[in-house]
Write a structure and sequence with these properties.
The complex is a heterodimer of chains A (264) and B (377). Chain A is an alpha/beta fold. Chain A is built from 10 helices and 10 strands. Chain B folds into 3 domains: 9-105, STAS domain (Transcription Regulator spoIIAA, 2-Layer Sandwich); 115-154; 156-374, no CATH class. A 4-stranded mixed sheet of chain B has the order 1-2-3-4, with helices on one face. The chains are: A alpha/beta (264), B alpha/beta (377).
């Protein structure tokens, strides 16, 4: 069995990923600790999504090891793999809701697959998960195509939470949302993080989200990762990091975050 | 009353109320067991109820939610409290419970009759809207073609040529093969019957008339509906999903002129030509079978062929081709333009396009048959 309290939750060592001659990851190290919100940033094409796919086992890396809860993902037996998959939830960039199923059926999909539950219980649980992400129960009867962007992100989160994971992977959870919806999503994430004691790994380009939610940040530069707490990351002298965190957009987000914290 | 329930629930009277002792595995994995136990809780619970979590292991959100929902159904309402290290997410679930209540109280009931009448009404209105949509679509195409006579750019020649290539030239092998094979089959089966009367030579009449009047054009139309009708719907449907048609409109271009009319015109040109090829291959198939199976030499076959033909036989088949072409192209492009929102719609409407265009072709063919008999064509 997997120990859900193992620390660190994720440990990546010397990860190598190549596409032909193009090297994406060249000895990348990463550690995510219990109950933190870990933000992954990097330029377009830096390999953020490839990293996520390597951790999830959707892509076999060219080298290096990925450990979840202290277990090497690649060497796991099939039965352990299944329990590993059930121990984390993932939301993909565009929601990846199954378009032929209603929202409620999407949420029930993993529950149906892994447990034999009665229809009334499944309905109850779908309702709970939808309420948890701030959707009303009548959204459950709709098809993904009938939802707005913000609702799709929330429905995807509800599906990711259905198996009660302790670890959550979010790929660009606020991309394409208006600032109000994005802020609401940040607040929801922080609330669920504290209530459910989740560990969250989040790929994001949204500096507001980064400043509002993340306790530590990992920056992918030249195929490697530099991780630090947010305040220390801001003092890093690497030119790309300086540019990223001290550009005009970053300054505004930073000020807002500082203001918000001093008021609160 | 003593404890009536065991793992993972135990109920004991305590003071003027109840004490619910939760023990054992309360994780999501234990959900089926929890579900069954909750159902067997007595419906007559009332007064105070204390949930004791001391012995519960690794409580999961889902089983606890099921418990809270079950306890909330008691009437009159229970006064529930929790002791002994209750799950950390209890506060969250209690908040969700309030949210749920608020969400349901604003929903009005929907009686069955009202819903049925509503459904019927919506369906009728939808049919009206569809009929209007088809008319509007026809009108748009007619407008574009009308304007094209005064505006040469509207002809979109390169697009037209590409579609003639894709719907016509690339369809030649399959159309030729199928026309040939079907005609061989008809000749073969016909010969079996006719030779019993010593009327072998009439196989030529059978093949010629069947191929030229009906089968050449009908088979071609069905093949083209399957190949190009679906392609039209899928191509235009994907462009709809990608908002490409909206982009065209926003740049001041007319998607009907760019996407629909070239396809309709291309098929209007390609289908009659394909029909001629199918006719020729059909006659060739009949000739070959007559030679091999019935030992009718080719000169005798062609001589008999000339005798059996009336002046209108060939045209009675070919005149239907443009009509079929318009039907197939219009159904395909119209269904493509209807695609909205999702990949599921795209698949559905592509299927609808093929089924409907084949149906329309056969319906039109039936009408032609009656018409030709009436006017002795």
């Amino acid at each position: 069995m997997l120990d859900p309290n193992f620390n660190p939750v994720i440990r990546v060592r010397g990860l190598q990923n190549r596409f032909g001659t193009q090297v994406v990851h060249d000895g990348l190290d990463m550690e995510v600790r219990q109950q933190e919100i870990f933000g992954v940033v990097g330029g377009s094409g830096a390999g953020k999504s490839v990293l996520l796919r390597s951790i999830l086992g959707l892509r076999r890396p060219n080298g290096g090891t990925v450990e979840l809860y202290g277990r090497d993902v690649e060497s796991l037996a099939a039965s352990d793999r299944s329990s590993l998959v059930q121990s984390y939830g993932v939301t993909f960039q565009n929601g990846a809701l199954i378009s032929s199923l209603t929202v409620a059926q999407n949420v029930q999909l993993p529950l149906r697959e892994h447990y034999s539950l009665s229809e009334s219980t499944l309905d109850e649980l779908a309702e709970m998960n939808l309420l948890m992400v701030g959707l009303t129960p009548d959204a459950g009867a709709k098809f993904p195509a009938q939802l707005s962007g913000g609702m799709i992100k929330r429905a995807a989160l509800a599906r990711a939470l259905a198996l009660e994971p302790k670890l959550l992977f979010l790929d660009e959870p606020t991309a394409g949302l208006d600032p109000i919806s994005a802020t609401a999503f940040d607040e929801l994430l922080l609330y669920l993080h504290s209530q459910l004691r989740l560990t969250v790994v989040m790929i994001t380009h949204d500096l507001d989200t980064l400043f509002q939610t993340c306790s530590r940040v990992g920056v992918i530069i030249d195929g490697r990762m530099i991780s630090d707490t947010l305040p220390d990351m801001l003092k890093n002298t690497n030119p790309w990091i300086q540019e990223y965190f001290h550009g005009p957009r970053a300054r505004a987000a930073e000020m807002e975050a500082a203001g918000g914290k001093s008021h609160g | 009353m003593s404890a009536t329930l065991t793992y993972p629930l135990a109920l004991e009277p305590q003071g003027d109320g109840w004490r619910l002792i939760l023990s054992g595995d309360w994780s999501l994995a234990a959900m089926p067991g929890v579900e069954a136990q909750l159902r067997s809780l007595p419906a007559t619970l009332h007064g105070n109820l204390v949930c004791d979590w001391t012995q519960a292991k690794t409580p999961g959100i889902s089983p606890v939610w099921a418990l809270l929902r079950r306890l909330a159904q008691a009437a009159p309402p229970l006064d529930v409290s929790h002791i002994g290290n209750p799950p950390h997410f209890l506060e969250l679930l209690q908040k969700l419970h309030v949210d749920r209540h608020a969400a349901y109280s604003i929903q009005a009931a929907d009686p069955t009759l009202e819903r049925l009448v509503g459904k019927l009404g919506r369906w009728s209105v939808l049919q009206g809207v569809h009929a209007r949509g088809v008319l509007v679509f026809l009108g748009r195409i007619a407008t574009v073609i009308g304007q094209a006579f005064s505006r040469r750019r509207a002809w979109r020649l390169s697009s037209l040529v590409r579609h003639i290539y894709e719907t016509g030239i690339t369809a030649i092998p399959i159309v030729a093969l199928i026309a040939f094979l079907i005609s061989v089959i008809v000749a073969y089966l016909g010969a079996q019957q006719l030779s019993r009367f010593g009327a072998d030579i009439f196989v030529v009449d059978l093949v010629t008339i069947a191929t030229l009047r009906e089968m050449g054009v009908l088979l071609t139309a069905v093949i083209v509906a399957g190949r190009s009708g679906s392609a039209f719907a899928a191509e235009i449907g994907v462009m709809q999903l990608n908002e490409e048609t909206d982009a065209l409109r926003a740049m001041g271009m007319n998607p009907v002129e760019l996407l629909v009319v070239p396809r309709v015109l291309a098929l209007l040109i390609a289908l009659p030509l394909l029909t001629i090829i199918a006719d020729a291959m059909g006659l060739a198939g009949g000739g070959l079978l007559s030679l091999i199976n019935l030992h009718i030499p080719l000169p005798q076959f062609t001589a008999r062929l000339r005798e059996s033909l009336s002046s209108t036989t060939f045209w009675a088949g070919l005149v239907k081709a443009p009509v079929f072409a318009i039907l197939i192209a219009m159904v395909g492009t119209y269904r493509g333009m209807q695609v909205r929102d999702s990949a599921r719609e795209l698949g559905r409407l592509t299927t609808v396009a093929v089924v409907q265009s084949i149906f329309m072709v056969i319906l039109a063919d039936a009408l032609f048959a009656v018409l030709f008999v009436q006017i002795k064509f």
